[in-house]
Write a sequence for this structure.
């Protein structure tokens, strides 16, 4: 019995994995992922310099 359950679970996990891969590489998500990929490279808002205590 556990051999059949193990095989079914493996098949389910493969299908879930492939679903996630197809979702991640779908053209519909490309623009969103491109935008998120460039976020670390974008300039942040300017930071005010604090007065130094000389």
């Amino acid at each position: 019995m556990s051999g059949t359950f193990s095989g079914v679970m493996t098949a389910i996990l493969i299908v879930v994995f492939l679903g996630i891969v197809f979702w991640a590489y779908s053209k519909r998500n490309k623009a969103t992922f491109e935008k998120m990929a460039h976020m670390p490279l974008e300039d942040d808002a300017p930071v005010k310099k604090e007065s130094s205590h000389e």
Summary: DSSP finds two helices and no strands in the chain. The chain has a mean pLDDT of 86.
